Amino acid sequence: MGTAVSRYPLEEPGLWVERIGNKPFPAGTPALFLDRDGTINIDTDYPSDPADIVLRGDIVPVIEAANRGDVPVVVVTNQSGIARGYFDWKVFAAVNGRVLDLLRGSNGFVDMVVACAYHEAGTGPLAIADHPMRKPNPGMLLEAAKRLQLDLKRSLIVGDKLADMEAGRRAGLSQGWLVDGEASSQGGFSTMRLRNRGDLAGLLAAIEAL
Fold first, then answer.
1. Cβ(13)–Cβ(126) below 8 Å
2. Element (H or E) spanning 47, and its range?
3. pLDDT tens-digit profile of 1-42?
């Protein structure tokens, strides 16, 4: 594991934190947080082959809107497949690199990637239940906020699971968009659905208003 930590941007055995590019952002800037599998790319169930990666059709305009508004784009992704032994950080790096390459090819740019591999079904140092970095816990969002000096209250999150919305709520965000989900409200956090062009227009308007 020591070799992996030295080779990849691992803060600890199960936490990847990668700053991409060097675009500066003023302190207090809100961010656009995005889940990866099922939100940015079509979820193929523990994606492990870069050749299988296909972007969701409606995600590039979302990232482009954030890029135009100088809103940092932060990917926060649970990767329990690593803990479960389905693949390792090398495979994650290849798959994630393909996701980022496809986005760049469509003029969408990501500023940070945070990934958590901890899971109770894992082995060794990754076998941790309810790790603070694993969604629905807010650790990955808080880590990005610390590094980029973000305004979490004004930030937005987009994901395809209720765990994404709960992570946003626990991190202090007030709004999230749930892919193929339903609208709801809890504890000062509003979940909007992301199902059709009208929903997408609402998300784009929210990003442009940041």
1. yes
2. none
3. 333 445 799 999 999 999 999 999 999 999 999 999 999 999
Catalytic residue among 37, 111, 164, 199: 37
| Cα-based distances in Å from 105 to 58, 72, 131 | 15, 18, 34
**Contact partners, residue 64, CB within 8 Å, separation at least 6:** 107, 108
Residue pair 182/163 in contact (Cβ under 8 Å)? The answer is: no
pTM score, two decimals?
0.96
Q: What is the dihedral of CA 114, 10, 44, 105, to 10 degrees?
A: 70
DSSP class per residue in 79-144: -HHHHTTS--HHHHHHHHHHHHHHHHHTT----EEEEE---TT--GGG--TT-TTSTTSSHHHHHH
The gap between the terminal CA atoms of the chain, to the nearest Å, is 40
35 is catalytic: yes
Q: Which residue has the tokens 């790319």?
A: 41
Indicate if 37 belongs to the active site. Answer: yes
- Per-residue pLDDT, averaged over 140-165, amounts to 98
35, 111, 160, 199: the active-site residue: 35
- Among 208, 174, 34, 173, residue whose Cα is nearest residue 112: 34
The token pair that represents 20 in the structure block: 């991409």
